[in-house]
Amino acid sequence: MLFGRIPKSHLDLIKPNISQCVKDKQSLQQRQHDEHAKPRVFAPEDPVFVKDFPSGKKWLSGEIITTEGPHTYQISLLDGHRIHRHVNHIIHRSSEPTQVLAPELDLLTGPSESTSSSDTTTKYHMFCFR
Asked: How many C-beta neighbours within 10 Å does residue 78 have?
């Protein structure tokens, strides 16, 4: 140590300190995530759609009953069943209940074939990720 600093040598150029670089990249990633992330919090009696795993693509209507953990909820379905789901498998819905939501919920399907070519271009750009 020289004046409270570690002197650099030629070996530092050969084997740089990677841990500081990793910490900087992780803090940048965390900061960018925090700027754009939306909180996914549900309250009891919130109307929701819940992923139905046996069918694969269907969403069932339900209502939040309780919070079981920071990311887990107990949901009452319209048919009376109670299920547990992670917040990743729950989405908000409007108050009018429907039993099953068709696959129209899939946002990555792209434009329909019944639109004109100018409409198709604008709709297609809405679904492209950059």
From this structure: 13
CA distance 118 to 62: 39
Q: Per residue in 82-125, pLDDT tens?
A: 999 999 999 988 866 655 554 445 444 444 444 444 444 444 44
CATH number of 47-102: 2.30.30
**What count of Cα atoms within 13 Å lies in the side-chain half-sphere of residue 67?**
10
Q: What is the spatial distance between Cα 72 and Cα 41, in angstroms, rounded to a whole number?
A: 10
Across the strands, what pairs with 100?
60
Please list, in sequence order, all residues whose beta carbon lies within 8 angstroms of the beta carbon of residue 120, skipping any fewer than 6 positions away: 111
At which residue do the structure tokens 């750009």 appear? Answer: 125
**Domain map of the chain by residue range?**
47-102
**pTM across the whole model:** 0.53
Measured at the CA of 7, the angle between CA 2 and CA 9, to 5 degrees, comes to 150
Cα–Cα dist 122/80, whole Å: 43
Q: Which residue has the tokens 């909180």?
A: 39
